[in-house]
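Pinned message: reference record for Signal peptidase I
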Amino acid sequence: MQFLTSLVLSAFVGYAGAWYTGFIDGNFALLLLVATVVTGIYWLAERFVFLPQRQRAAAQLAAETAQRRAELAKMGIDKVDTNIKEAQEKLLMQPWWLDWTAGLFPVIIVVFILRSFLFEPFKIPSGSMIPTLHIGDLILVNKFHYGIRLPVANTKLTEGTPVQRGDVMVFRYPPKPSVDYIKRVVGVPGDEVAYLNKKLSINGKEVPSQDLPDFFDESTMRYFKHRSETLGAKPHQTIQDDDRPAFVPGADQFVGRENCNYTVEGVTCKVPAGHYFMMGDNRDNSLDSRYWGFVPDANIVGKAFFVWMNFGNLKRIGAFD
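Predicted structure (tokens):
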């Protein structure tokens, strides 16, 4: 078992190392699922096989010691060194290969349940969602809001709350599903989304917005045009770069592109069934649905709702819309 466990642990380390060095595209959800299953098997084996074996060995030692004492007592010898406590402790001690597998199972199963079905943490790596989310924000994503899904397979088990316009959503990036993206839901199935001359319209109606004082972005040390926009029930803020043109350069040949019309003024798209149109709040600095297309329902990870830490700015902590 020691050799087998060494191979298993080496495989985990090798996978993590190859992922870290960029040799492979890692899948943390899959890695966590496998770790949960493997450590769970070891935990069951420890509980029902290995621990009872060690307990029987300790009990046998105690019985043999008691028998020896009785035999010596018959011979008139009653002062013998028969302290077996230390020996019993060594017999009952969990070996290293169980300590690193079965011993970790309670922690791993808790992390697996929390991350797979309740809340998952993410770190914001770019400025595409400024001013709502800043670079370095550590956020929480509600995994059950849109329905509970099986980990890895992402198959929906419950319906949950329907996706709403204005939601900040984490999803698997359609061109590369191993990568997680975060954007705002702009269009739901059946919507006609138009972003022309930097003005957003849904189904032919311009989205209500209000000008705000210019926004200073500390990550770029620049001022940007600042607006309050109301897509859903609550308003959110967006910024625009007047130096950027309105047209969308370099859009991919994505599935459903025939639903979109690109002009010098921008883009108009009809959102197909079971898909969503996503945009960043930093409208001129966001690689979003304008460039790579629609997000299928199967790619949804969850709804982002809370900044739990930003080590560069503690004032960032709190809920957001």
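Pinned by admin. Summary line: The helical segments are 2-20, 28-74, 85-92, 96-99, 105-118, 289-292.
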